[in-house]
Structure formats: C-alpha cells, structure tokens
Design goal:
Belongs to the methyltransferase superfamily. RNA methyltransferase RsmG family. By secondary structure, the chain is α/β, with parallel strands linked by helices. Helix content is 39%, strand content 22%. It has a seven-stranded mixed sheet, sandwiched between helices.
Length: 237
C-alpha cells in the first residue's frame, strides 16, 4: 500500500490526514527502519508493507468504530514497535496512551519516537504486565486495553482485564480466527468477570483476513489476578 493509497482510504472513511499527520507516519516509518537495524522491531521493512500491515492494520479499531475520538485512556500491552496504539494516537491525538513492554530497548525506541513525532500524553513503562496490574496507579484505570497478536485469549485476558475500569473493553487484534480459542478462554473470562461482546471479522485492502475480539469487563477483578509473572502463560486459567 503506497502512502497516497493509505491517505486516500482514510479520507474515504471521513478521516482525512493533515500534512502534519502524514509527516508523522513518514517519520515513524523512517525511524522504524533505522532502529530495526539495531534492535529487532519488525520483520516487515518494505515501505508499502509497513503502511498496510503495521499502520493500516493498527488503526482498525478506529475504522471499526470501536474507539471514540475523545480523551479516553488506552493501554497497549506488548506493543513492540508501538502497534496498534501509536498509529491510533497519530490519527486521534486526543487519546491518552500508555504502553507497557518487557524489553527496555523497545521502550527506548518508543520514547525517541514519541519525541520525534511530537506526541503528547504518551507514557512508556518497562516491565511485565502481571506486575503493573497489581499497582493501584495502573489497575482498573483504563477505558480500553489493546493487544495485537500477543497471546491466546485464555492467557491474554488475565494479563489485560485487571487494567480495565468496569465497563472498559479489551480489543484483541488477531490475524486468525480460532473459535476454539474463545471456548478455551471461557473459564478465564468467567473468573475475571468479563464477557466477549463481539468478534469482528474484516479484511485488509489486500484481502488478508483480520479479527478483533471485544471483551467487556463486567465487575471488579478479584485481587488475586493476575497471578505472578510467568504464571498466566505456564498455567492458564
């Protein structure tokens, strides 16, 4: 997808980009490629592929009308090179975005990126999702949590649901739809007082299938969740 195609597709969906936003995406691409030579950020380095499979793919929650253009608090778990939250932040500057990632090198990249793109209200923390979720400054503080290809729902729900306010939503972006994955996660979702509200399917402009599972938090998460770092993966609920 050429940058011009990207701009036109957004304009067609009533999301025209300003010159500044176009420059932000361009600079994002340049820094991603530059830093990718030092630390492993992405296997996708072709410009047209980055615009399609990173930038366009990341803004799907906005294109699917799942995220409002207001000053909501959004947490991105395991965002890697900033996907999906930072392309959404460029599109909706009023979002308040927090990223937690377990690799400090990636956090350093994200800090520099935010500075270069002149992004306000973005916060980056190095550490494990399990640990921050037990901190009152993070627990039950967010309207949305996003995760793109991070883990199976059975594990992902324990890592993310505790961060949500009651009524908040987890948006899990995936490239494959596994109905059995949601069946497997049924017990975890019950224990975490949360429920699958929707499982959206759509296609990227090149025809590749994509899915977003929307999970709503119904009640406060019991204090014992999430368990210690590593446990959700080792012994899923």
């Amino acid at each position: 997808m050429k940058p011009e195609t990207f701009y036109n597709l957004l304009a067609d969906q009533n999301l025209p980009l300003s010159d500044q936003q176009k420059k932000q995406f361009e600079r994002y691409f340049e820094l991603l490629i530059e830093w990718n030579e030092k630390i492993n950020l992405t296997a996708i380095i072709d410009k047209e592929e980055v615009y399609l499979k990173h930038f366009y793919d990341s803004i799907a929650p906005i294109l699917q009308d799942l995220i409002p253009s207001s000053n909501i608090k959004l947490l991105d778990i395991g965002a890697g090179a900033g996907f999906p939250s930072l392309p959404m932040k460029i599109l909706y500057p009023q979002l308040n975005v927090t990223i937690i990632d377990s690799l400090n090198k990636r956090i350093n990249f994200l800090k520099l990126l935010a500075q270069e793109l002149d992004l306000d209200d973005v916060h980056f923390y190095h550490g494990r999702a399990e640990d921050f979720a037990q901190d009152k400054n993070f627990r039950a503080q967010y309207d949305f949590v996003t995760a793109r290809a991070v883990a199976r729902m059975q594990v992902l729900s324990e890592l993310t649901i505790p961060y949500l306010k009651v009524g908040g939503k987890l948006l899990a972006l995936k490239a494959s739809n596994a109905p059995e994955e949601l069946l497997e996660a049924k017990n975890a979702l019950n224990l975490l007082f949360s429920k699958v509200e929707d499982n959206l399917s759509y296609a990227l402009p090149n025809g590749d299938p994509r899915y977003i599972t929307v999970v709503e938090k119904k009640k406060e998460t019991p204090n014992k969740y999430p368990r210690k770092a590593g446990m959700p993966n080792k012994r899923p609920l």
